[in-house]
Queue: 2 jobs
Job 1
Amino acid sequence: MDAIDQALIARLQVNARESLSSLARELGISRSTLKDRMDRLERREIIEGYTIRLNRGVLGSRIKAQILLNLDQKQNASVAQALSKLIEVQSVYAVSGNYDLLVNVETADTETLDAVVDAIAALEGVRHTQTLILFSSKFERHTT
């Protein structure tokens, strides 16, 4: 990966829908060269996909929470697989310390959050959970 690839990735992280022509102009390369670079980054799985960020103010308030899970180590993979099937689960991270996984959840209301926490706690291999409800965001970086 060279400096142009890094600049391209940085631009796409800001706006993945920016036109190829605009990106090529900003990077000082031709549109076809830009397209070739993007295709190569995708083939090498450096770029795994493109996504959107939603305007939560327009969509209405959502309840965000982080759920810490203590697991039976033999069930780690099956728990992660089960979590991937829950639409409210936004991401799952392996962590160090007293817990094994950190699960980011987003729901429409506290009743749904309660049901999701219950469903996660009921998964085979989950020994203990601790739920942290996020009240507000002081700032957020959208770089990943």
Job 2
Amino acid sequence: MKRRLVELLRCPGCQSPLDLEVLAEQSEPLEVALEGPCCNRYCAEQAAPMDQLLGDSPDCAACYGRDVSEGLLACSSCELVFPVIDGVPRLVRDAGEVYSSFFYRHTESVGRGAGPMGPAQPARPNPKVFDRRSNESFSLQWEIDQPGDRTWFKNDRELRHREFLDSMQLEEDDLRQRLILDAGCGNGRLTSSIGWYGAEVVGMDLSGSVVRANQDRLEHGGRRAPFVHFVQGNVMEPPLAMEAFDHIHTSGVLHHTPDPERAFESFLGLGKPGGRVYVQLYRKREAWVGIPNQLIRFFTSRMPVRMLYRLCYLLAPVHRFLVLVVAGLRGEQSPIADATRREQAISLFDNYSPRYQYRYTPEQVRSMFEGHGLTNVRDVTFDNEARHMVAFVGDK
């Protein structure tokens, strides 16, 4: 975790700024030139507000050249403490429970930074905004996903990277030196590749997928990797500063939350006025597809996640055959034709495992955008995804 990230982080409980105590740090040489101070309000390198810096300008290159591998992020307002583990801040409400061994090892530091509460009385997740099943499901999904696998049958480094500009309706120059949010980043490959455009990017996900995403960012982000950050957090109570990001992006995420409308409002609040907003959601399907899908999901979304994945892997060839038959009858080509069995199984698992799955018509998504005051709203769904997905962009 870069110290610069502290300026962007907030307590998910009360939205207060967080204080960082570094427990372990390592170097990561910076290979890209910096232009001027990188922080806006609070200097991470000198640990002081920008308008109170003394002496020389901050050494941003040195700051970005260090990585906090372990640390504590404390909220002085509600006395909650969150860990930084494996270089990733874990800003989820059940952190005290999930990462109890980490807190035990650092009991003394927690006591200094968190006040009397510490991790002994961790905040309990609110079921209206947190779903444990989704966390388990997506953590397993991205654990199974392997380097070289195509995300949703698309090459991350080439096709999805190029599609990002079309999705956001932006040019490369619109991203250079901008701060971008990718909410629900999954394996993080697309997130890291956005850095190639000269942007600074924050990828956030509720699941543990952020750990490997952070480990792989050097591979996928290249020389821009120091400007790619990953955070474990919940889009329904985001641990990020409001109106901090120039452009915000979320793909295939909000429909898996307990309350997509609330999730959309929380996500929207993170973008700056005038910034671009992109949302992709599941499309409402025809009855002959949608009703059987709902009936199957009634059982599969209650199965143990590892058992369900094994079933998806077993049935992947059957599903492939049926998809190709339907595509042939329609005179269409399906990307599943070239997919590996694991890629097919992950796609099935993604559909049948999460507890929540809401679907929308284009008219409903447009209404959602316009109802929240977004302008220049337009449908940007790709033709090859139109049967399954619906995507819109607008300006905040």
